[in-house]
Amino acid sequence: MPRPRSEKSAKSEERVLKALTGLESGLYKTAYQAANVTDASESTLSRRLNGGKSRSEAHESQQILSKAQEKALAERITDLTATGHPAHHDFLRDMVEDIRKQSGLDNNARIPLPIGGSWV
């Protein structure tokens, strides 16, 4: 799973999302206005409006699991711990492989990244 974002970058992303939401709803007429009101970066906002991705979205292809797969893994771990079964590293690694197999990679998909020894 990716490392947690810093508080500064999380707040910045929150401001950009707030500005994008305001633009979509018609609250703001221009990206310049949205950036000024929400204190978001105008260049980041413009790039996102033109189809740009956030850092986490851009690097998702470099991760072992996608966001949806990470969520499925977290749910499985939560279910295990709720029933009193600890999730050991070997078991987690097996669960990750199961999730990756269930994703149904076709021939055109990228080759999955190998799971390293210290991944967990």
Tell me what you see in this structure.
The chain has 2 domains: 7-58, no CATH class; 60-120, no CATH class. With 120 residues, the protein is mostly helical. It is elongated, with a radius of gyration of 19 Å. 57% of the residues lie in helices and 0% in strands.
Q: Structural class, from helix and strand content?
A: mainly alpha
Distance between the termini: 8 Å
**Mean pLDDT over the full residue set:** 83
The low-confidence runs, each spanning 5 or more residues with pLDDT under 50, are none
Number of helices: 6
Number of domains: 2
- Basic shape: elongated
Q: N-to-C SSE series? A: HHHHHH
Main sheet attributes: strand count, strand direction, barrel closure: none
Round the Cα radius of gyration to an integer and report it: 19 Å
Proportion of residues in helical segments: 55-70%
Bin the strand percentage: under 5%
Number of β-strand runs: 0
